[in-house]
Amino acid sequence: MLHFIHRKSKLIDLYLNFNLTLIFHLSKSDKFKFVIGLNSGTSVDSVDIVLVKIKGFDVSTEIKVLKYQEYKYPECIRNLIFECFSNASSNVEKICSLNFILGRFYAQKILEFIKTSPVKSIDLIGSHGQTVYHIPTHKKVCNISSKSTLQLGDPSVICALTGIDTVGEFRYADVAVGGDGAPLVPYLDYILFRSKTKSRLLINIGGIANITFLEKNCDRNNIIAFDTGPGNVLIDLSMKILFNKDFDKDGCTAYKGKYDKEIFEILRKNDKFVTRKPPKSTGREYYNYIFLEKILNERKFLPADIINTLTYYTYYTIRYNIENFINSNIDEVYITGGGSNNICLIELLKEFFGKNKVKKFDFYGINEKNKEAVLFAVLANEAINRNSANIPSVTGSKNNVILGKICYAR
């Protein structure tokens, strides 16, 4: 009799434990959360902040955008960021200071954003921070070999000043297991755009351009995604030097210029990244003033022709990677990022793919402007649900890991 009671009590315990576990998981996945995502990209034109309503996680994630706002950097902060990009102008004091300056600036803008938001009670913040240096190749020091990356704008500062749980530094865990820590956006692409009937290509043209290819009926292990080369970074840099403008608005300067084959050949011969096989990632460490020095210092090249040819070169690098590393038919193409506003660049891509294949990117309020900010809201949600969000086939990592450091407000 005692033996029976003991067995019965063990069965009750198992039953209770199972149901408590089930309730715990349901409570995490079935409850809507209001999450803020923050992104500052390679172009450093603005801080993008988005408020999303999220339910579930992984492929069951449901997302609705409630509000989006861009905040321009003050010129003094922007200048400091650009100083920290360069070995010649940065130092440990500037990098140390910028980490906290950005954390405070992000927190300030988040609090401003919340004041005019439809929801005042925020559950979570996901902040990418500002990448200032990215080393996607192994460097050996004292027999310890590692890739590395650095994003500033510490999430602990954001958390402490907003009083909201914050997740940041999403690249580090992937780098720790041998990955590049980039690109990260394919995870969101997979959640939103996987299809049983259509093969889809997503092109993101920020400072650096990257692509995600989702073959019809693919699973997470079949995703092809990588950086293709320069997006706006070389165009923006040249616009600043040649025209004292931050970027080529709508591609107007490119339209005024002409394609110069000599400029193109200098770029093509100087670029060892574009032809590399994926997985691969890059940044300003590679595509910078040194990369352009020969062109910018050559007086015979007309400024507008340089911008036109650089725009064509961005198109060429995207096309080259698609033609050489995507061996499948493409049914639909979606273009996001600041480069989607460059009419000259978009016309080249539409001519290559066919106008009918290039679709407008708008999915439950997620569009070409706010997509990357939405990504970091989603990645923060994945982290608190203890779900891995890196993709080894994309970053080159050895295994799946949970991305992001969680900072608790209380």
Largest sheet: 7 strands, mixed
H/E order of the elements? HEEEHHEEHEHHEEEHHHHHEHEEEHHE
- Class based on secondary structure composition and strand pairing: alpha/beta
- The tally of strands reads 14
Give the overall form.
Answer: globular
> What percentage of residues falls in helices of 4 or more residues?
40-55%
Stretches where pLDDT falls below 50 for ≥5 residues? 1-8, 10-28
Number of helices: 14
| Gap from first CA to last CA | 49 Å
Q: What number is the mean pLDDT?
A: 91
Describe the structure.
The protein has 410 residues and is α/β, with parallel strands linked by helices. The chain is 42% helix and 23% strand. It contains 14 helices and 14 strands. The chain has helices spanning 2-30, 75-85, 92-115, 155-162, 172-176, 186-193, 233-243, 252-256, 261-270, 289-296, 303-325, 343-353, 371-384, 392-395, and strands spanning 33-40, 46-55, 62-72, 124-141, 144-152, 166-168, 200-205, 208-214, 224-230, 332-336, 358-359, 362-363, 366-367, 405-407. The strands form three sheets. Strands 1, 2, 3, 4, 5, 6 and 14 form a seven-stranded mixed beta sheet that branches. Strand 1 (33-40) and strand 2 (46-55) form a beta hairpin. Mean pLDDT is 91; it is low at 1-8 and 10-28.
